[in-house]
Specification:
Elements (H helix, E strand, L loop, with lengths): L2 E4 L11 E4 L6 E2 L12 E8 L5 E6 L3 H16 L20 E4 L7 E3 L2 E9 L1 E10 L2 E5 L4 E6 L4 E11 L26 E6 L16 E3 L3 E3 L9 E2 L10 E3 L2 E4 L4 E2 L7
Organism: Erythrobacter crassostreae
Protein name: DUF4893 domain-containing protein
Keywords: Signal
């Protein structure tokens, strides 16, 4: 499990910098044989992945305490020696509190049910953003042109539904990705692009035996607007989710409020 710290401002998710951190035990992807004892101070994610080739990346929105600690450390490092650039342009890598995390469905899984790899993750409680997809520690493609976020409450299992990833250049077998796939050569130039979407949980979805008796709640997804991330190979968007995230002529909108989602993160 990798972790980076990415700062955020005003909960609108402004991202000025990030730092690669070492493996972080606060965000743990559980294996099939591991029993689950719900910690009342921790949050838990449950989701299903039919295609296990790609990693899924989640961003935890930093708390006010995280941001204050980051600014203190950044100021101390900036003042440590004379610098030509102003403080605002000083790029500072901080590994103390990582908050960009990777789930690798191909390496770890709880149980394969109905041809799905079912994932259980123990994580810090808080607000999260479905950030992008990648491979083995590298965030290859961000959802920088539109995505969703959710709140994971302590002591509860948040059911994220089913996460769908397909090659964007070929037609996808998943109906949710029809507008993001079958793009042909334009999506397969020097580096291939992926179509990424979410099927929110509905009805009696498969739940591993480890979670029997746990309080499971559907993810309260909300739409999040575009941002810039210069570390990725590709910038794409999460597929539209009815009632949560929609696109009008390529522009992301929140169907709940009817508002256009303007640039809300920068890096």
């Amino acid at each position: 499990m990798i972790g980076r710290f990415i700062t955020a401002c005003a909960l609108a998710l402004t991202l000025p910098v990030s730092a690669l951190a070492k493996d972080d035990t606060s965000f743990a992807q559980l294996r099939k044989e591991e029993a689950v004892t719900v910690n009342p101070e921790k949050a838990y994610f449950l989701f299903r992945v039919p295609d296990a080739a790609n990693s899924i990346f989640f961003l935890r929105v930093p708390s006010k305490a995280d941001l204050a600690a980051y600014e203190t450390a950044k100021r101390a490092e900036y003042d440590r020696k004379k610098r030509k650039m102003p403080y605002e342009e000083f790029v500072f890598d901080w590994e103390e509190v990582p908050n960009l995390f990777e789930v690798r469905p191909k390496r770890k899984y709880v149980e394969i049910g109905d041809k799905l790899r079912v994932q259980i993750v123990e994580a810090p409680a808080g607000e999260y953003v479905v950030y992008g997809v990648g491979y083995n520690g590298y965030m290859y493609q961000c959802n920088c042109m539109g995505t969703v976020g959710f709140v994971a409450e302590p002591g509860k299992v948040t059911d994220l539904g089913t996460y769908l990833v397909s090659n964007a250049w070929d037609p996808s077998p998943h109906p949710e990705l029809k507008d993001e796939s079958g793009l042909g050569r334009v999506a397969r130039m020097d580096f291939g692009m992926f179509a990424f979407g979410i099927r929110p949980v509905e009805g009696e979805a498969f739940v591993p035996a480890q979670l029997a008796g746990s309080e499971i709640v559907p993810a309260p997804y909300r739409a999040i607007g575009p941002w810039v991330d210069r570390r990725r190979i590709h910038a794409n968007r999460l597929a539209a989710i009815p009632g949560v995230l929609e696109y009008r002529e390529g522009i992301p909108f929140d169907p709940v409020t009817g508002d256009e989602l303007r640039l809300s993160l920068h890096n």
